[in-house]
Amino acid sequence: MGNTLVVGAGPIGLWTAVLIKAHNPDEDITIIDKRDKYVRAHILNIDSDAFQGVPKDSRNSSVRELQKIAKEFRKNKKVKTLEIERKLSAIAKKMGIKQHGGKNWELSFEKLEKLRKGESLDIENKDLQEVFNKADLIVGADGANSQIRKSLFGEEKKDEHELQKLVEVKYTFQANPNEKLNPLDQYHDMKKMVGASVTINEQKPKEAEEELKGTLRIFVKADLYKKVRPEEKGKGTFEDVWKINELKDSSDKELQKLGTDIEQMLRNRNIKEAKITALPLGTYSSKERYSEETLQNGKTRRFVLVGDASSGVPFFRSLNKGTKEAQALAETVSKVKQISSEKVNESKSWWEKLFQFGFSSVKASGEEEFSENEKITQLFQDFAKSSDKITKWEIFKARVKSSGVSLANQYFRCTKNLFGFISPYKSVSNPIYQE
Hints:
Layout (H helix, E strand, L loop, with lengths): L2 E5 L3 H13 L4 E6 L9 E3 L15 H16 L1 E3 H14 L3 E4 L7 H8 L9 H9 L2 E4 L6 H7 L3 E19 L7 H12 L3 E5 L7 E10 L2 H7 L15 H5 L4 H13 L4 E17 L3 E5 L5 E6 L5 E2 L5 H27 L5 H8 L14 H32 L3 H10 L19
């Protein structure tokens, strides 16, 4: 192990790269992404156990700075995706991690298939080909539509469950830092207005008249979902969003009501822009998370999946799950490094090992031992099992959450910031929203 390629420069791809580097300073790491700049500004909920695993006793100034960044994320709890990406990208640069983005760095399914077969890419993709061929560990952090997962394991997934359907409103607004936003008051207020189960997730204002981001989610029934996102038109997707006035001006009465309700729910916000989409909330998991292939030169190329490429869970859980996978992977790479270090010391005589490493370094005569490659494979298989356990626990929590529980339990979860908060109230009078 010596060259790692991380495909995907989102929060999980970046966190995975910097964490591996923090534990293994001599690892040569490159991050590639089809985007050449960071544009996503939606808010992410950060758990207290997310962004963990940074070495605490490091003398490296960049690692100490990474500790502060991780602590800041956990403290703030709600952070823009853009802020996470920019801060992690900056610290990655300080740590010597190479970063490339743009069309020529997109590792599409077709390019990946060619590279895995040892074929050459077009001249404009030669740099991508060189980086790929040099890597002995490739980390797929390329999101829910992962091309690496598709190439390695196909389209089939496991643990696929649709939990709920929702209408999502992403909006920008201005607020005063002295204004106290009380989530519980908002939920009661919205319940009275529309009789619906809703969630709201807003940035906290730090400066007067600061432009902030918010996300409103309304849980809806299947009939309304199909109207907001009709299959034949493509409307209601991220490529073709609704505006509030579009809904209000619709000829369909249920869409009109939805537009009016959204306007009422956000009436106390100085809304600058609102984009409305519909999406299902569900879970999925890759069939496998680890794969390896033997190259013509006899070396082994290894692939692992993290983040949404590995599995997806709703209710703001995917980021937190992904940071735990990154931590497990960084620890795995460290163990692989130790195995490689042991191999270097095999040439030393038994008394040299005894003097340098103690009695644990001298193996009993005739002791059966696995090859270095077998040991490394076992470590990555253990990582895959660990990742699967992390996902199953998150899926369990998501399914419990979607089933509805008592107000006391919901409030407990809210205060512990374990799940975020979903209104425990059920719609009893409004036929278009989810009961």
